[in-house]
Amino acid sequence: MTRLSLINKNIFFYKNSNKIKKKKKCIKVELKKKFSIFLFFKLQSIKKKFLLVRFIRRCYISGRNRSVYKRFDLNRNLIRKLGLFGFLIGLEKSSW
Questions:
Q1: Which stretches of the chain are assigned E, i.e. beta strand?
Q2: 35-93 pLDDT, tens digit each
Q3: What is the pTM for the complete model shown?
Q4: What 3-state DSSP class applies to 74?
Q5: Which CATH superfamily is domain 57-96 in?
Q6: pLDDT at position 66
Q7: What integer pLDDT is reported at residue 53 of this predicted model?
Q8: What are phi and psi of 68, to 5 degrees?
Q9: Do 43 and 24 touch, CB atoms closer than 8 A?
Q10: What are the two backbone dihedrals, phi and then psi, of residue 23, each rounded to the nearest 5 degrees?
Q11: Residue 40 to residues 28, 32, 50: CA-CA distances in angstroms?
Q12: Is 43 in a helix, a strand, or coil?
């Protein structure tokens, strides 16, 4: 299980990314109307830590951040376990 602080950090990035996105969009519109160095530097000064790029996709059950499938939002180990019992619709374990 992942630490709670990592999960909270992920939630923080997701919530604040929308605010920053709106702010960036307003500055870009102003820049298109009239170019100024002040607006350009204002756009560059936006901190990268608030952007959605920093958001890390995690498994809902285990919290693992590696090998997470977008379709199920689960990691490969849990997909295999749940698929074996038929809990995932559209997925069945094939063995020969």
A1: 68-69, 74-75
A2: 888 887 777 777 666 666 667 788 878 888 888 888 888 888 888 888 888 888 887 66
A3: 0.51
A4: strand
A5: Ribosomal Protein S14/S29 (4.10.830.10)
A6: 86
A7: 63
A8: -100, 125
A9: yes
A10: -65, -45
A11: 9, 11, 18
A12: helix
Asked if 77 contacts 40 with a C-beta cutoff of 8 angstroms, the reply is no
* Identity of the amino acid at 85: F
Domain ranges of the chain: 1-56, 57-96
Q: What is the pLDDT of residue 57?
A: 81
Residues 6 or more apart whose Cβ sits within 8 Å of residue 58: 2, 6, 7, 10, 64, 65, 68
pLDDT for 52: 61
> Helical H runs in 34-89?
37-44, 76-85
